[in-house]
Write a structure and sequence with these properties.
Layout (H helix, E strand, L loop, with lengths): L2 H7 L5 H16 L11 E10 L5 E7 L4 E3 L1 E4 L6 H13 L5 E2 L6 E7 L2 E3 L2 E3 L2 E11 L13 E8 H4 L6 H15 L1
Parallel strand pairs: 1-9
Antiparallel strand pairs: 1-2, 1-4, 2-3, 2-10, 5-9, 6-9, 7-8
Length: 184
């Protein structure tokens, strides 16, 4: 199934997801480069909401650009199979090698605002990330490795603490709380 069909199949659970789903579908239909960062207005990204096997903890990274604890993810960079990208990003950002996606279905989708910032010495203008989230499961005993190019830390948090450590209130209220409920 291609990304457009996967998004069309997704059943939104709230108004935010309904609106964001419509926005994503229109963007794909009107932009050939929707998977590439060369589209400076918007492009697709993927996140993994990574839980332990008991579903009591979340694996998070301390993101350098956003200066906050956050979920794990990255850019599609031309790859339409976002499930493949999700697992690759999870391993690259945390060192976790044996994670698995709990389902092929999308867990959540959201349009994210990204403020302009410096990345590797170059200015990246403000833009949107059309983000698809999948639920992953990993063994919390597996060795964690900080990817110093991307983050400053990798750590497991209880659900309760995962809502306290981010510095981005919108993410906590609109996304992380929803993801915790869906991952139990």
């Amino acid at each position: 199934m291609n990304l457009l069909e996967e998004i069309k199949k997704y059943k939104p659970l709230n108004e935010q997801e309904k609106n964001d789903k419509e926005q994503m579908i229109e963007f794909i239909k009107n932009n050939d480069n929707y998977l590439l960062r060369e589209n400076k207005l918007a492009h697709f990204t993927v996140s993994t909401w990574t839980v332990n096997k008991e579903r009591t903890k979340i694996l998070m990274v301390y993101h350098k650009i956003y200066d906050s604890w956050s979920w794990i993810g990255g850019h599609a960079d031309g790859i339409e199979d976002l499930k493949e990208v999700a697992l690759r990003e999870l391993e690259e950002e945390t060192g976790v090698k044996n994670a698995r996606l709990v389902s092929d279905d999308i867990l959540s989708l959201e349009t994210l605002n990204v403020n302009g910032h410096m990345r590797r010495g170059e200015y990246v203008p403000s833009h949107l990330h059309f983000n698809i989230t999948y639920l992953a499961e990993a063994d919390e005993k597996e060795k964690l490795v900080v990817n110093e190019m991307e983050n400053k830390g990798v750590k497991w948090f209880t659900f309760e603490d995962a809502l306290k450590v981010p510095h981005e209130p919108w993410f906590v209220e609109m996304i992380y709380k929803k993801l915790i409920e869906r991952s139990k």
